[in-house]
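Reproducibility note. Readers wishing to regenerate the assembly model reported in the main text can use the exact inputs given here. Chain order matters: entities are listed in the order in which they were concatenated for prediction.
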Amino acid sequence: MPELIRHDGIHNDEWTLVSKPEEGQDLSLPDGPALLPAAVWKENMDRFAGRNDIGIWFDSHEEPEVYADMIGDLPVIAVNFPKFTDGRGYSIARLLRERYGYEGELRAVGDVLLDQLFYMKRCGFNAYALREDKDSAHAEYCLNVFSNAYQAAVDTEQPLFRRRAS
Amino acid sequence: MYVYDEYDRQILTERVAQFRNQTDRALAGELSEEEFLPLRLQNGLYVQRLAPMLRIAVPYGMLRSDQLRRLARISRDYDKGYAHFTTRQNVQLNWPALEDVPDILAELAEVEMHANQTSGNCIRNTTTDQFAGVQADEMVDPRPYCELIRQWSTYHPEFAFLPRKFKIAVNASDDHDRAAVQVHDIGLEFTRNDAGELGFRVYVGGGLGRTPVVSPVIREFLPEMDLLTYLEAVLRVYNRYGRRDNKFKARIKILVKAMTPEAFAEKVEAEWEHIKDTPSQLTPEAIERVKAFFTEPDYASLDDNPDALKAPREENKAFDAWVKRNVDAHKKPGYSIVTLTMKKTGVPPGDASDRQLEQIADLADQYSFGEARVTHQQNVVLADVRQDQLFELWRAIRPMGFATANLGTLTDIICCPGGDYCALANAKSIPVAEAIQRRFDDMDYVYDLGDIDLNISGCMNACGHHHVGNIGVLGVDKKGQEFYQISLGGSSQRDASLGKILGPSFAREEMPEVIEKIINVYVDNRTEEESFLDTYRRIGIDPFKERVYA
Ligand code: HEM
Ligand code: SF4
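Running the prediction on these inputs yields the following structure tokens for the assembly.
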């Protein structure tokens, strides 16, 4: 089973990430907990009422705005990094946390590399599906590489200038 | 000048350790070249034509003498004994070894320096007027605000992987714009509203490079306390909606154009509404705290134009010429702002040897409260020199090569490294600058021509700001041959404008001749008071075309 890094350590990942269906293709659900493409989930929401093993994922160009009122109870939301250099997922994560009040598990998936973990954490992620060829043994160092930060973000409400001035 | 506290020191120490770890993993093959690329760029490390290049940050251009000495030592120990002052107010080393970079960064950190975000698709070093804090006409000292922007942008978790690089510049002077704010991704200009409150006029979407744009204003007045939240809103809109499919269309200027400045501004306002009242809003205490680092040095109480200045000026024509050109008025009586020119003919513009860096450090200690500043014209400023010491200073700097009295003139050329160093170049630029300097070696004539910006870039990336030169020179490649295209009428001042292309390009040997013809058109047409740019704007490009292509 694939690994999932959370802030308390490394876990087995029970969730299956369902890719976007091709044109004309029906949605086929795997057994067990599943992460669906956000748009697919939205279209079929009635089917999943009452289930707590369904989550969604956003691609980097998608807008969480569209889903703002629907996502509060989801157990897991994932944000895809199609390439590690595509920084849109950081903004999506902050919006989900800070603007839309999402409190469940927020996962980074896709091209997730070690040297981005600290930034992801600050933007509100708390779970990471590291790209397979990367060594999760380094994750703890990379998640905590800085002991402090200048700006406010999801993990730090008060920017350093306020903490210094007080 | 800003001084690090425990927080700054610790964060920087951790950064150095992080980059050492990353370099080790890259060298061990655990990071692919592609994965290491943005990491090393965000630590200033380019890989160039002849060797790696390290770009060291000089926040808003300010350097202490101990930092200059450290730069000298580093350029001696790890490089070939010289460094380069750039148009981004940074310092570049041309030949460091990749393996040494973590050690270089550690040495820099000891003197509160770094190479953070000097390259890569992130928020770059914020630049400002090299005369900040000492000139009479500025509204406030912009440096504390630049420092707040520096801190906010350093390792910003949301904006480390933007579509493209991002540059912010700040100007506080009503009469001048020495920071070229209208050709930056964000330009901030201090202003006051009708109630007299301090704030910023915000320009977004300027820049040079392949698609040069003079930026539109997207907000006429931003209260000072809202600086960081508003920047965050602009960056968030850019991060989410800037183009990522095409590197050449990825700068914010393309987004602003595509959306129209009005629609872009609306989007930013909508985003900002959500975040303007969060704790990231500045506080008077926070601003005061940073301002306390930029207080006035211990000025003596003096009079302007003392005998110790007057007498030597009357007796020594060369000194007088230097004072006229390279010395600017200071807000304090009895003091002056001195620009050390790095434009001696035969030396690449901006280049300084390790020995020269040490000499600048000594001069800063002796004459200017231990501080120096880098200008975007690739010169160095001593901002607080006593007028009664100007003569002594001038005598000291002549043998060092800093007294070329050509500041702001035709031979004070901005010039990128071009084909001699840069892998992206279409043509060399340093020899063109040198040939022009040699042609115009009669200083009286150069003074008579007055202020002229001549800027040279070796390719359309525009590192030499050719678009905003009154005369711009661009290296172009024609079937593997080097040619040079000329543009006229650019300005990076408050009346910023982009130069217009004169016509077909020229071979390198022709350049001095062509520049001379252009200058002659000006001389023949000018009225008493007109600068080159004034005349150009009055008579247009045609008379120049006619003469040059006759
Ligand atoms: C030698 C190594 C260098 C390389 C590989 C390099 C590369 C580039 C590239 C690719 C761009 C265009 C980016 C874009 O428009 O998106 C650029 C722009 C720029 N570079 Fe360089 N550069 C180098 C050296 C320098 C130096 C030495 C300076 C200063 C003297 C400099 C200052 C600038 C400036 C001011 C721009 C501004 C363009 C703008 O406003 O859009 N660069 N550089
Ligand atoms: S303008 Fe072109 S040639 Fe000159 S430094 Fe920039 S990239 Fe290199």
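We highlight two features of this model. Residues B 46, 48, 53, 86-88, 92, 164, 183, 207-209, 251, 416-417, 421-422, 424, 461-463 surround protoporphyrin IX containing FE (ligand 1) (CB under 6 Å). The two ends of chain B are 54 Å apart (CA to CA).
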